[in-house]
């Protein structure tokens, strides 16, 4: 049976992640409070961010930047700012 969480990003009950995908305390918060759907949204943003800013995941400063963006996006309702990217008009 799939586990559900109250997703802090989407503000609704939704299927949760199958296992903790991110290490440490932040990873636990994500596992307990973020849905698969919201995580997929983040993965999409993360890919764009890494490509846009040419981030190197071996660089601790780059990982820190990415984590700050991730926490902002998932928990603080902040939009990830990606230069040159315009969200589609609704």
TrEMBL record:
One of its GO terms (molecular function) is iron ion binding. InterPro entries: Fe_traffick_prot_YggX, Fe_traffick_prot_YggX_sf. The keyword Iron applies. GO terms for biological process: cellular response to oxidative stress. GO terms for cellular component: cytosol. Signal peptide: none annotated. Pfam families: Iron_traffic (PF04362). Keywords: Iron. Could be a mediator in iron transactions between iron acquisition and iron-requiring processes, such as synthesis and/or repair of Fe-S clusters in biosynthetic enzymes. Necessary to maintain high levels of aconitase under oxidative stress. HAMAP family: Fe_traffic_YggX (MF_00686). Belongs to the Fe(2+)-trafficking protein family. This is Probable Fe(2+)-trafficking protein. The lineage of its organism: Bacteria, Pseudomonadati, Pseudomonadota, Gammaproteobacteria, Alteromonadales.
């Amino acid at each position: 049976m799939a586990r559900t969480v109250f997703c802090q990003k989407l503000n609704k009950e939704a299927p949760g992640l199958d296992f903790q995908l991110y290490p440490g305390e932040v990873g636990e918060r994500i596992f307990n409070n973020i849905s698969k759907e919201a995580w997929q949204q983040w993965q999409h943003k993360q890919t764009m961010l890494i490509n846009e800013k040419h981030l190197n995941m071996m660089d601790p400063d780059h990982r820190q930047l990415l984590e700050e963006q991730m926490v902002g996006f998932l928990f603080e309702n902040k939009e990830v700012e990606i230069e040159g990217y315009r969200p589609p008009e609704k």
